[in-house]
Specification:
Layout: H1 17-38, H2 40-47, H3 50-59, H4 68-81, E1 91-96, H5 98-101, H6 103-114, H7 118-138, E2 139-140, E3 144-152, E4 157-165, E5 170-176, E6 188-193, E7 201-202, H8 209-220, H9 224-234, E8 237-238, E9 241-242, H10 249-258, H11 263-267, H12 274-286, E10 300-301, H13 316-332, H14 337-353
Parallel strand pairs: 6-10
Antiparallel strand pairs: 1-3, 2-7, 3-4, 4-5, 5-6, 8-9
């Protein structure tokens, strides 16, 4: 997938009420026209695309270069779609901080409204937890996930998450493929960030497949504690990555007892977190010679300057298609002339800065 470009510095504070109310007024008719004209699945496919998500935020009037576009846009969608009078059978669970931890409660809350079976509810809860575990533990890129959002209907779902790096005051947004399967290998449709990081453990990469398989074998064979002690005797740091000093051995013992059949099941064992997975990756690499990927998996790098190919060339075709799609949606949406004109002006601004 081609790499694309916009900038995501960390911004603090809240969007003003006048802006939020305007964004809500614009967002609902645009969402409805997308579903009516192109189908519900198209909405989920679009929202899984970082370029569309960013452009949609811009059309509604939010800052084009702010990390707050993630929390504000998902908050706006949560407000309009979770209203039973919206006329749209799509709901938004989770949110920023503690709201993200309430995702399972939110799914259960809307189950009856959407006609979800109990098995479907449990499936969505598991998929939500799995995505959170992957971006917080299997992909160790220096960003702590603080925003988790599950958008779902009776048939479709997707996850959007955001992490922050307070030291660099930057954020990155993780978009999961719509209707993704519970697999660790390259599940993202795009990761939006301002720059590539150097000290990375990416267990989601296909290049890390043998490392994941070896780590799983080490746990299932009951050799982790022995190999971990050997690791501590060999190295303390590897490529800027430190060997964790403390491991939740009770969680490791539980994983051994459960005998997970694949790496995805290992990820879902409670207590198997970032430190344990980092130690397992290093054991598989340094003791069993099964390397993990050290390359940052960012696919869309958001930074002004893309027109020069730095840090990546802009995929103009994707941007043009997104802008034209939104332009048509705005024209067809049930908006007043003032709102429609402002939305189209915001699209024109997007055309001006994207290159």
């Amino acid at each position: 997938m081609a790499k694309k470009s916009i900038y995501l510095p960390l911004h603090h504070g809240k969007a003003p009420y006048w802006l939020l109310s305007r964004m809500k007024k614009l967002a609902l008719p645009i969402v409805r026209i997308i579903i009516e004209e192109f189908g519900e699945r198209e909405l989920f496919e679009r929202m899984s695309d970082p370029v569309f998500f960013q452009s949609f935020s811009n059309v509604l009037g939010f800052d084009w270069n702010s990390s707050g576009s993630t929390t504000v846009l998902t908050g706006v969608l949560k407000s309009i779609l979770n209203d039973p009078n919206s006329g749209v059978d799509v709901r938004v669970a989770g949110g920023k901080g503690k709201e993200g931890l309430k995702t399972p409660e939110h799914v259960e809350k809307f189950a009856d409204e959407l006609g979800l079976t109990s098995s479907r509810v449990e499936e969505l809860k598991t998929l939500s937890r799995f995505a959170a575990k992957v971006d917080s533990s299997a992909l160790q890129d220096g960003y702590d996930v603080y925003h988790h959002c599950l958008i779902f209907s009776k048939k479709h779902y997707l996850v959007i998450q955001q992490g922050m790096n307070p030291a660099t005051r930057m954020a990155r947004r993780y978009h999961w493929m719509s209707d993704f399967e519970m697999r660790c290998e390259e599940p993202h449709s795009g990761i939006a960030a301002e720059r590539k990081e150097n000290c990375i453990i990416d267990l989601t990469s296909r290049k890390s497949r043998e490392n994941r398989e070896t780590a799983l074998d080490v746990v299932r064979d009951g050799n982790f504690k022995r190999d971990y002690r050997r690791l501590l005797g060999i190295v303390r740091y590897r490529d800027g990555i430190s060997v964790p000093r403390r491991i939740d051995w009770k969680a490791v013992e539980k994983a051994y007892e459960l005998q997970p059949s694949n790496f995805e099941e290992l990820l879902l064992v409670r207590g198997v977190g970032r430190g344990t997975l980092r130690a397992l990756a290093l054991v598989a690499d340094l003791i069993y010679n099964r390397e993990y990927s050290r390359e940052d998996p960012v696919k869309y790098c958001f930074a002004v300057g893309g027109k020069d190919g730095v840090p990546f060339p802009v995929d103009r075709q994707s941007y043009d298609e997104t802008i034209e799609f939104l332009r048509e949606a705005v024209k067809q949406a049930e908006l007043g002339d003032f709102e429609r004109l402002n939305a189209l002006k915001n699209l024109q601004k997007l055309v001006s800065f994207r290159f």
